[in-house]
Amino acid sequence: MSFIEQPVVALFLSLALGYLIGKLRIASIQIGGVCGTLFVALALGQLGVTISPDLKNVAFALFIFALGFTAGPQFFNNIRGGWRYGILSFVEVGTVLLLLAAAIVIFGLDHGTASGLFAGSATESAVLGTASDAIARLALPKAEIDRLQSNMATAYSVTYLFGLVAIVVFTTQIAPLLLGINVREASAALARELGAEDEAGNGNGVPEIVSRSFRAGPIAGSSVGAFENSVNGVVTIEQVGRAGGFSKATTETVLEADDIVLVIGRRRSVIAISERLGAEVPMPAGDNVPLVERQIVLVRRQVAGLRIRDLRRLASSEQRRGVFISRIHRLGQSIPALPGTVLAQGDILTLYGSEDAIIRAAPELGHLLPASAATDFVMLGLGIVAGLLLGELSLQIGALNLTLGTGGGALVSGLFFGWLHMHRPQYGAIPTDAAAFMKDFGLATFIAAVGLSVGPDAFALLKQYGLVLPVLSVLVSAVPALASLYIGHRLLKIEAPILLGAIAGQHCSTPTISALVSLAGNSTPVIGYTVTYAISNVLLPLMGPVVVGMVGLIG
Description:
The chain is of the alpha+beta class. The chain is 59% helix and 12% strand.
């Protein structure tokens, strides 16, 4: 066993087996690689394997900074303008803290057990880092701090599984029953309201953008611009073929009956206007206009909050010619790019069309993302250092010492640098895939280090509380969701699929939104998920020190 007891071997074995376990599916539920890693690390930790605390701190700083960096643009936008959905994140935090306070008083939970219950029931692993840092700052002997941190990891491993099952079952089974809806039918109806072509469209709700060629026929004598304006700019004539050759169309080009026009637009729009044109003809090989995709980050506040259809109506005829929004990514999730979809600052928009059209339209929306895939380590290093310095600041209020700690400081720093990069994407780049790796690897390594540090105290905690922790985790998971369901449906009048997605987001539960999207048959629940996920992903980790302080006050 000496080989397995080597720290490096134990770490990567925990990651490999943990993510393998995380792929196992029970019905529609997967526990995920992070929780699986903790289970394996807890088992290996019984062999006496330990990992340097410095590695644990580095891994968590890397994770929490990347988390803030990717969430920054959406977080500030949602705090400012996404209150209709975002209020549910505050419902989550407030309700969980109230339930946790009651559990501390009734069952005498210690700092570690309360923090683990909070993190596991809310399925927010980042809480472990901020709470662990707060526990380490307590004026207690090292042996007691180690015991509390061990209790935190054990409580999390028990409550996460039950909290995850509770929120998945609630959003996919119980909530639809309480609302009296069929999720698939409600999602299809909502997609049609937003402008989806039909129920049998693409699985992610994104309409196709197509190019087809026709004889000009009935529109002969009119200019390209006049025809496009007559159909409200929903299609663009990109090229005109005449006398055996093709040339780029301009708004002033006057069409003749035998001209061949290459029309670009969403499939439904092209089909709708085809009856106004002559016969469809095949496009000669080699004469197709080169169409490209480019990504931009949406920055302009005047555009944020508009629907895609409104955006096209407000743009001038020249600005909107030949360019379409084909995909929208928000916090790494795909949002349906439908005519009725509301845009948000920080969205990553994929523009589809000719290179000239995209270059012309991009400045009206935001900034083209640089093609470079290199990480700016200058910004990364300075950002984390700034966060660590911020975490050293503290405020003494009576017996309560308030501090962001390492995790909270790095999170706030990441939020700021992420917001800054949105406005100046040419500086401080962390590519999406690189940021995702930093988050996944950083969190998994931190969790593995926590699990490996847990000794026999884990079994003592389980014997002490028995079934109390699983029952509490179900309550702490389901009650905030129930409160949000009532508030979102009765008071805020949020559409059911979006509301269910928002409840999954306030829980920061990726498995839940995956199950919801599968149940819905399209990605409309993601619209609500991204708003509450952005806010809860910041609020919940910041509550780690609050929970530790709360135990000291009322425990």
